[in-house]
Structure formats: structure tokens, C-alpha cells
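Quick note —
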Amino acid sequence: MASRSSSPRWRPIALGSLGLALSCAAGLWWSTRPPAQPAPSATEIPLEPEMPARTVVAPPQSAGELVDEPLSAAPAPGSPWAALNARAIAALDARDFALAIELLEQCVAGVPDEPVFKGNLAEALARRAVDEHERTRPCEACLEWLERAIELAPEREALRQLLERWRAELAAEREFQRDRSVHFELSYDGWRGVLLDAAPDVLDELERHYIELALIFGLHPAERGRPRIPVVLYRREEFTSITGLADWAGGSYDGTIRVPMQEGRALDAELSVLLRHELIHAFVRESGGGSVPAWLNEGLAQWFHSSVAADVTRARRAISQHGWIDLGRLQRAFAALGEPAEIAAAYAQSLALVEYLERAHGRDALLRMVAACGEGGAPAAAFEAWTRLPFATALDDFLGDLQR
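Predicted structure written out below.
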């Protein structure tokens, strides 16, 4: 299923019996279970003797979420520049980046002091860079387009952060080997000899997870002309430099699945679980965009592994020990909570709550909550529309269920 094109190495993470790993796509993640095939890791944070926690921290926003600024109409509707600007906006909506940039360059040249034209051109350049970066790795031209966008819109700090991330990525990945399968592009450092042989197995495992998750979510994020999902295996120091995550981070997802690897480590159960966890984040983002609450995102990433009955039991016990964390505090990446014990508790609560919601109200309720985020709606409203039960009542029922 996998096709070879080049290769390097990685560094896996270790989970514990419950493995709380903070992953990156919306936060951290627990992950454990004696899986049918995999399991990941990170450093352990003891919550109780039998329940080590793992942490893999929250991810940065995806590049696409950083460049989706609204475009503006020209201030003088009847002018020829306004007409060019309108044509450029239409071209950009049609994803004809080259034409949009050409037209907006004319507008900027004709009216150099007009901020609308500069802002629109910066956005067009940024969108072109992101689109090409998804398809071509490494992409030096993408950096040039982004640099030009920053010149035009120096106030957009998000573009500066993205440029810094891409520069670090290019420096680390310039000589990486690249293997492809139907839905994935795997990149890794050529010095990792074990991966040269293991890369096809890694890709086959990713494809197996993709097929299963596509059935669960009813989505196919890397098909119909869409780029393959990038998966990159780094040395630990490379991973830290690019993601900004600490040594205990087990992996991240920011549009790219990124995993730190140890030399000489090939595919094993832990790595498989970690890859699946991060891939679940990719499916959640495909359905709900970047606004899915962290508790729902991380809860699904743990629950949609394989059998996790033991994890759920420990998670429910952890809530009793730590106490309930208001869901308002669990909307964004769990790393922001700061304290390792609270982060572990947030993972435990997310898993236990998602498990209960599926058990009591069905999987479709969860999937509709995610999809609602992608449509600009609220997860709680989507839950109520599907179940005819206020979400607050479902939470009360869950807390009551914990006492049984």
C-alpha cells in the first residue's frame, strides 16, 4: 500500500497504563489501552499510584487558520482599481491565486497608499503560500510569498509566527526522505536507517487507521484532489524547535502530524496509537474546523482508539479525586492549564464525558457536535437539536452517573 521515495528516523513516546498524552490539534491527550495494535507516550505525571499520566501538549493553529482574513472591497466603487480589486476577490474565491495576485499587484502599483489593496494582496499571497505548502514540501517559494505578505501587512503577527515555523521546518526537513501512500506523505531524516525499512509499515498502519476513521466520521480529508496528509518524524530537538513543545510532548497536529522519534525505533504498538490519536485530530478538524472545544476534541481522540474500558474506569476515578473542571476552562488547548496534575485531570474528564455521551445518547450526537463547529454553530445547541435534551441536563446526568 505504501510506495517508497526516501527515508529517515524517529523517536517514539511512551505511554503508561493509561497514558495521558497531550497531543496537538487542540490540546493534550491521554492515551492508553492495551490496544489491538498501538500506543504512544510522553513523560509521566502520577495522579495516583496506578494511573500514570502522559502529556503531549497542545498544537499551534494550522496554517490555514492563520491566513483566512476577510477581503475588502475598494473604497471608490466606480474606479477602474475597484473593478480590478473585485475581479481579484472573485479569482481568490475560485482559488486562482496567480490571477488574484497579478490583479492586486496592479492595484497596489496604481494606488500605492491604499491599505485595502495592500491588505488584500497580503492575504492572497498568504493563501497561495499555505495552499502550495500543503502540496509541496519543502517549499522555498512559500517562504518568499509569505515574506512579501508580511511586508504589505506588517501588523499581522500570525504571519510572522507562521514564517518562523516554516523556516525552522525547512531547515530541519530539507534533506528528509519522503515516502508516499494513497493518503499520506511520510517524511523522515535519512540517517535513521531503521525507518528506511519500516516506512512502508508505518504508511500501511496509517492507511488502516484512515479507513477506520473515514467510516466513523463519514469524511475523506485526503481525497478528490486534496493533498496527502503530511506526517513528519523528527529528532527530539527538531520537534521541539518546530513545535515549541517541551521534551515531554509526545506528538502534535497542526495540519501536519509531527512525532519525535528515537534512533533505531521502528513501528510498534505505542507508535501506532500515537499516530491514530493525531490522525483523529485531523478528522475532527476536517469536520469541525479549528473551533471544536478541546474537551470534545481530546475526548474523541482518546475514545476512538480501540477498547478503552480500563482507561475510562481510571478516568472516572480521577474526576472523583481531582474534582470537576468547568467546561468553560476546557475550550482551548489543555496546555494553558499549566499544572500537570490539572492537565491530566482535564484529559481524564474529557475521555469519561465523551464515553458517557456516546453510551447515553449515541455516537451521532458527538459527531453532530463536532460538525456544528464547522458550520459556525455551537456544540451544545447541536446536541440539544439531536437529542431533544439540554446539554446542561446531560452534564448533570453524567455527574450523577459518576456516583454509581
